[in-house]
């Protein structure tokens, strides 16, 4: 079968599943669940693909809301990552209902032709992208050990291919001091709020020397109980971001020193608790990205040329990309002036444009897989890279 004929077959397969896929996207949107708690989302997806003939492992890799669903038995394993967690209070303001449904669309489009193509389609349910990093947990558990290439699409205000992301590390910060009456006996107290203030001043001074793209952001979540009581406990949430993991490690070391300075100056006790997994910078495979770009444009999408310098936020797909050839294109739809991680963006998640993004994103990924599976050079390169990784 010619590549053109295969494209048309997958398009027809997906057209026959349109109602299921749009229904899935809308159901995820209407029932948002937070990181590591996406039980109904995972069940909705696994029920759908099991009914389509996929072999499914629920609660995979030690995560109750992760799964692996496979079709085909070829030696080239393609991992398609489905995200489906939401944000606290604002639901699917990052469009993960679109992300998850598009991943399912790609898997369903490819499944009938997997054995003919000599591939195994592995739909990987990846929880907790917004907080925690389920993909990192799954990497450690071996979910990607046999995967030759990984992909997903992400909802956005516009299409983009080949972009990078920032590495990120998050902390919960705590200073423990000693409470005392602020007027009668202040000398008997140890001011935890002052420790936080000194750390924040030190971080502000450090910002002049941050590496390009470096960001330190945070909020104080507890700063005291009353104006006449020296605070015995102060807490904060802080993020450190940088362009690469190497830069992140250096930045994080400096920020840690700023927090230690607050403890040293006041005598308060410092506790830094990591939050979830560190996210690595995203490194997209340019050969895969070019195939996706061609597919998206063939579907009539307005996609700018590949721009590796374009930078987004942070994603645990970055960690996958350091191990596996990966793409993470953005699939856009009209959302007015709304920006991601904003309640306004949530409202556009079930519009006709978002529905088209589900289908186009799924089909563009499917066509990307067709390209790599039928191109002997590309296929051999992926197989060689997997073998080298396995031996390492």
From TrEMBL:
Upper lineage: Bacteria, Bacillati, Actinomycetota, Actinomycetes, Kitasatosporales
Alphabetical list of NCBIfam families matching this protein: amidohydrolases (TIGR01891)
Family membership noted in the UniProt record: Belongs to the peptidase M20A family.
Boundaries of every Peptidase M20 dimerisation domain copy: 168-262
InterPro entries: Amidohydrolase, Bact_exopeptidase_dim_dom, Peptidase_M20, Peptidase_M20/M20A_hydrolases, Peptidase_M20_dimer, Xaa-Arg_dipeptidase
Record-given protein name: Peptidase M20 domain-containing protein 2
TM spans (from-to): none
Pfam families associated with the record: M20_dimer, Peptidase_M20
Gene3D superfamilies for the chain: 3.30.70.360, Zn peptidases
């Amino acid at each position: 079968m010619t590549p053109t004929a295969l494209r048309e077959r997958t398009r027809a397969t997906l057209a026959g599943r349109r109602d299921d896929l749009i229904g899935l996207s809308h159901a995820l949107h209407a029932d948002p669940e937070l990181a590591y708690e996406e039980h109904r989302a995972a069940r909705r997806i696994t029920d759908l693909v099991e009914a389509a003939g996929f072999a499914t492992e629920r609660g995979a890799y030690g995560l109750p809301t992760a799964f692996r669903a496979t079709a085909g038995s070829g030696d080239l394993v393609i991992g398609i990552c489905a995200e489906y967690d939401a944000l606290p209070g604002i639901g699917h303001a990052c469009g993960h209902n679109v992300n998850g449904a598009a991943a399912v669309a790609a898997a369903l489009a490819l499944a009938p032709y997997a054995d003919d193509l000599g591939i195994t389609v592995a739909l990987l349910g990846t929880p907790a992208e917004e907080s925690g990093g389920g993909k990192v947990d799954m990497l450690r558990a071996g979910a990607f050990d046999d995967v030759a290439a990984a992909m997903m699409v992400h909802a956005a205000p516009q299409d983009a291919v080949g972009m990078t992301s920032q590495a990120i590390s998050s902390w919960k910060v705590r200073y423990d001091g000693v409470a005392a009456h602020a007027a009668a006996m202040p000398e008997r107290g140890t001011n935890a709020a002052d420790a936080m203030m000194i750390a924040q001043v030190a971080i502000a001074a450090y910002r002049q020397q941050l590496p390009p793209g470096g960001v330190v952001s945070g909020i104080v979540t507890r700063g005291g109980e009353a104006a006449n009581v020296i605070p015995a406990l102060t807490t904060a949430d802080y993020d450190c971001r940088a362009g690469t993991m190497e830069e992140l490690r250096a930045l994080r070391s400096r920020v840690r020193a700023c927090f230690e300075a607050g403890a040293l100056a006041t005598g308060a006790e410092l506790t830094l608790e990591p939050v979830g997994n560190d996210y690595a910078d995203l490194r997209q495979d340019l050969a895969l990205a070019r195939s996706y770009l061609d597919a998206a444009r063939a579907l009539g999408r307005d996609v700018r040329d590949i721009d590796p310098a374009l930078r987004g936020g942070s994603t645990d797909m970055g960690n996958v990309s350091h191990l596996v050839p990966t793409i993470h294109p953005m699939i856009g739809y009209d959302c007015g002036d709304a920006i991601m991680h904003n309640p306004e963006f949530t409202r556009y998640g079930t519009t006709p444009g978002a529905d088209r993004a589900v289908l186009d994103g799924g089909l563009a990924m499917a066509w990307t897989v067709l390209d790599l599976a039928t191109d002997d050079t590309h296929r051999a390169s992926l197989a060689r890279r997997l073998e080298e990784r396995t031996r390492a």
